[in-house]
Amino acid sequence: MAQPDKTQPDKTMNAPAPESTRKFDPGRAAEYQTQSRIALAGYDACHELSACMLAATLGAGRAARLLIVGAGGGAQEIVCAGALEPGWRFTAVDPSQPMLDLALARLREHGLLERTDVHLGYVEDLPPDGRFDAATLIGVLHHLPGDAAKRDILDAVAARLKPGAPLILAGNRHAYASQPLLLAAWGERWRMHGASADEVQAKLGKILQGADPPRSEAEVADLLDEAGFDTPNWFFSSLFWGACLARKRH
Question: How many Å separate Cα 115 from the centre of its chain?
Fold first, then answer.
């Protein structure tokens, strides 16, 4: 049987893109590598530790299939995990073509394209067959407006995981307005990297209007519980960003 051409993503998305997807346009994709590392202090450390947490949970040196939801951009989840564990294979899903194009370029650069099936679309487009040994959902949840959308994606991920499989969930986990000091420090980080006072204010306004994070770590735990995951184990924090591992209940 002929192998699929992994230089191009499978085009499984058939519904109109929501606003949470449309904002990841070519302009945002082009600046993603730089901007993400300013917005999240410890961006690389978060991804490296995520790979380490998965290896510690699954067992080092074992073959595994990983579902990477929201893989567009730098595909950093796959870059880190693929370097650590040569026996892991990946299914990368993202609804933004520009962001997925950037991920494809990085996977090709790191020699990981042959170990990765790439899908343009949503996790719901994949069969709910419980075939994955682990999953990551990094930098996605706070872009989904409302609790219903957050529950839906966590349910969709859970349906594709084996019992006991770990999920790495990372993203902003505080209502921004409830953490004025953290938000101010986030603005200062941009200033540290050369943003003017007006640019800082514009970025603060954009994040307040353009994302809807869970309101607390307790709310994250509740969302995970409703989707069938155990209590999360938090292992990384950077201002209002946090990363945790939770296992799907048997």
Answer: 19
Domain of residue 133 covers 22-176+212-247
pTM of the predicted model, to two decimals?
0.89
Upper half-sphere CA count for residue 165 (Cβ side, 13 Å)? 20
Find where tokens 């993400």 sit: 36
What does the alpha-carbon distance between residue 200 and residue 187 come to, in Å, rounded to a whole number? 6
CATH number where 216 lies = 3.40.50.150
**Residue 170 maps to a domain:** yes
pLDDT in tens, 114-138: 999 999 999 999 999 999 999 999 9
What is the rounded average pLDDT of the residues 79-90? 98
Alpha helices in 85-216 (DSSP H): 97-109, 146-159, 180-192, 197-210
Q: Say if residues 24 and 98 touch (Cβ distance below 8 Å).
A: yes
- C-alpha 244/C-alpha 167 separation (Å) is 8
Query: What total of structural domains would you count in the chain?
Result: 1
Residue 156 belongs to a domain: yes
| Torsion, CA 80, CA 86, CA 159, CA 236, rounded to 10 | -30
Of 77, 133, 151, residue with least CA distance to 110: 77
pLDDT at res. 9: 60
Question: What are the tokens at 78?
Answer: 């796959």
Give the distance, in angstroms, between the CA of residue 201 and the centroid of all CA atoms in the same chain: 26
